[in-house]
Specification:
The complex is a heterodimer of chains A (about 110) and B (about 110).
Chain A lengths: L3 E4 L2 E4 L5 E7 L7 E6 L6 E5 L3 E2 L7 E6 L2 E6 L9 E6 L6 E2 L3 E5 L1
Parallel strand pairs in A: 2-11
Antiparallel strand pairs in A: 1-3, 3-8, 4-5, 4-9, 5-6, 7-8, 9-10, 9-11
Chain B lengths: L2 E4 L3 E3 L5 E8 L8 E6 L5 E8 L4 E4 L8 E5 L4 E6 L8 E7 L9 E5 L2
Parallel strand pairs in B: 2-10
Antiparallel strand pairs in B: 1-3, 3-8, 4-5, 4-9, 5-6, 7-8, 9-10
The chains are: A mainly beta (about 110), B mainly beta (about 110).
Chain lengths: ~110, ~110
């Protein structure tokens, strides 16, 4: 299985902060990676596909980068509605695998 | 409107069987895989497996192979997740997801308790 190591597992930030979350794949996955946001009691929502393609309707403060084994999700200016848990998901090789998640909390 | 609608919450006893469903509408369901994702209480997301409703081709995560059965009925645009003998450790929310990741069901809470 491809292991997705996501870091940090949690972070505290303030509104307006720039936040970066990373995912490292145990082997190369090209750009076969998506980023998801999950709020309590809700289904996950896709933010980014193919490592850097912003989902329609997702604010432009979200961006993704990377290829191969190193990926990142950046929120350029954190907004109150962005406090949530974020996951990466690789879909290059079966079984697909999620990162462990990053909880973004209010500082 | 494209959507995946899951069956409701279930409360079962250990050893009982269960099948939950995920009905697709608003798109041609036979051309997209449907994946199942587990979220245990307070934990992260786990990819369980997926099925192509067009021909029922199925892929399982080794962690779930033999523990669950994924099936589909293309005539009703519905995918299923089934257990033959539930355990307390199966207590979780189960989501279905279109393989593109852009469409998710609302989740189904399965509680297994004696």
């Amino acid at each position: 299985d491809i292991q997705m190591t996501q870091s940090p597992s949690s972070l505290s930030a303030s509104v307006g902060d720039r936040v970066t979350i990373t995912c490292r794949a145990s082997q190369g996955i090209r750009t076969d990676l998506g980023w998801y946001q999950q709020k309590p009691g809700k289904a996950p929502k896709r933010l980014i596909s193919a490592a850097y393609s912003l989902q329609s309707g997702v604010p432009s403060r979200f961006s993704g980068s990377g290829s191969g084994t190193e990926f990142s999700l950046t929120i350029s200016s954190l907004q109150p509605e962005d406090f949530a848990t974020y996951y990466c998901l690789q879909h290059n090789t079966y079984p697909w695998t999620f990162g462990q998640g990053t909880k973004v909390e209010v500082k | 409107e494209m959507q995946l609608v899951q069956s409701g919450a279930e409360v079962k006893k250990p050893g009982e069987s269960l099948r939950i469903s995920c009905k697709a509408s608003g798109y041609t369901s036979t051309t997209y895989w449907i994946a199942w994702v587990r979220q245990m209480p307070g934990k992260g997301l786990e990819w369980m497996g997926m099925i192509y409703p067009g021909d029922s081709d199925t892929r399982y995560s080794p962690s779930f192979q033999g523990q669950v059965i994924i099936s589909a009925d293309k005539s009703s645009n519905t995918a299923y997740l089934q257990w033959n003998s539930l355990r307390a450790s199966d207590t979780a929310i189960y989501y279905c997801m279109r393989h593109t990741g852009d469409l998710w069901g609302q989740g189904a809470l399965v509680t297994v308790s004696s």
